[in-house]
Amino acid sequence: MTAAQASFLEVDGQPVPVWFHAPAEVDANSTSLSRMGVLMCPAWGREEASSHGPWRTWAQALAQAGYPAMRLDYPGEGDAWGAAEEASQLSLWVRAALVAVDHLVARTGVKHVCIMGLRWGAVVAWQAARQHPRVSTLLAVAPVVRGRTYVRELAALQAASSGEDEALARAGCFQSGGFVLQAQEVSRWSAIDLLGDSKPGSQAGEGAAIHLGALQRVMVLDREDLPAADKWIDALQSCGVTTDCQRVPGYADIMADPHHASLPAAWVQASLRCLQSALQAPACDEVGMDDAAAVDLAGPAVQAELSWAPCTAQAQDQVHEPTLERGPPAVLCERFVQWPDTPAVGVMTQLAGAVGPASGKAILLLNAGSTHHIGPNRLWVELARNWAAQGHLVLRVDLAGLGESAPRPACPPNQTYPHAAVDDVRSVVAWLSKQPKVRHITAGGLCAGGYHALAAVRAGVPLQAIFMVNPLVFLDAEGMDLGETSGVAEHEAQSAMSSYKQALLNPAKWRKLLGGQVRVGVLAQVLQRRGHALLRGCWREVTRAVGMPLRADLARVFRDAMEAGVTVHLFFAAADPGLPLLQEELGSMMSRLARRPEWHCTVLPSGDHVFTRWSDRMHLLHAVQSTVPGPIVR
Known about the structure:
Layout: E1 5-11, E2 14-21, E3 36-41, H1 46-64, E4 69-72, H2 84-87, H3 90-108, E5 112-118, H4 120-129, E6 135-141, H5 147-161, H6 166-170, E7 173-176, E8 179-182, H7 183-191, H8 194-197, E9 217-223, H9 230-238, E10 242-248, H10 251-254, H11 265-280, E11 303-308, E12 330-339, E13 342-351, E14 361-365, H12 379-389, E15 393-398, H13 421-433, E16 440-446, H14 448-458, E17 465-469, H15 490-503, H16 507-514, H17 520-545, H18 554-563, E18 567-573, H19 578-586, H20 589-594, E19 599-604, H21 614-625
Parallel strand pairs: 3-4, 3-5, 5-6, 6-9, 9-10, 14-15, 14-16, 16-17, 17-18, 18-19
Antiparallel strand pairs: 1-2, 2-4, 7-8, 11-12, 12-13, 13-15
Helix pairs in contact: 3-4, 5-7, 12-21, 13-14, 15-17
């Protein structure tokens, strides 16, 4: 799998990124490609974060089959400009899709375009497909048919994950699974109804009667377990639209957690059948748009300037809810970066026109688990642009095999703890150290990202500071694949044990246990894990007391790092299992490390593992930003 070619398009005066996958059998700059190109509109929010890897794999599969494919980031989402609460608007997303179609046609010379949309992306695709003269085919994947039903699902997800966020509600915003929309936009989404759109003379979700434009075929790949598009297909057929609907198994694999997510071959094969049938249709022999009408683009831009208003939302302390506020906008420059000695790719952000960071400081943000370089709930985008507005140079990186990067030869993709992660970090840090004015480099991330930063220091990579947010493992995790773990993991056992302690005095819990309603096998695994952990902790304390060296001594790793001049910042949500795991690993050494000026450990009073609630995320954002302080050096 090769890395896609990234570029920026201009939508309403601001940059929107696209990722182009050229067919394997021709050069990327050739204009003699397939007669049909595919624009891919992603899902939204938590579904997009989960399906990002499968969606990219799908684009690569289409390209290998001969179809030039282009993936789009919506304004206010992914790597695009704008904060979600300001730029996430369906009408703006549709305009971005139309601009992307123009770009795809100009770049490849295709005569026809299929817009392919996943979940809410199918709504974007449906509205854009009817407005562009080159779009002859729509391919809707597990489409959202009724907006009202979808919004209820989003609200249920938020209630199940972290509850209502009062700060966002006061600001007139809506959150689901860590992603934010304007409340007014949610109302517009609720009014969307593809079924109503597809009835002659009816009004669409935004007030327009049905209009197909050049659109000739609507293909649907629906989930086999819970199909939702049958009535929409029936309505389209009653209007004389050529349709095809296939029910495909394995949808849950696409929407699993990022480290588990995969693309079943059945979905790729079904999409290729749809595209082939569209190409064989007689109407595809006609040209839907004059060649002279195509947008003339000299070539894809490799960097873009964007206006970014840094988030100033913070409470007087970590307990009170923050307010949604943004400071004066700064003009930033972002560009995509690749290196010759590593498959890793990155997005670099700094002040526009700057030659190196004005502060002399560079920050490297690493993958949080298998989540791509936007970070959990787009946190790395917000953090990187806020830091850049202060004069720092920030690089958000996808390690080899994660996000937008290709895996190393003979290595599987989507490994959370790849063996060569330190090599990737070493290559990127070496490149950063050669950039003008860079004198201080910080690396870090959430969970696995923090682990890789510590592993890099342990391997001698020249860093001046690291930060670790909610790490769950600390040493020797290379090769561990969260997608293949069996049984109860150490952090799961720690969380379960905390729940068991709280249940000891609860009679209802005892009745469930005695009534056989508790999974005794899991309980036994948890107790076994925790028993082993306690024994290991006692052994470490005894070994340290008698002066014997430990094979893997986390306290020594931290001590050696700080003696080498590395500042260590740790951040934990109070309820996250990483903190007690760290305390067990360090034992009595933790209080000694805490006395060193290079050691900083911050416990945030609330938050889940990835800080899903916006309020918790803002507290974390403010805390992490303080790890790279100091006035801008002019």
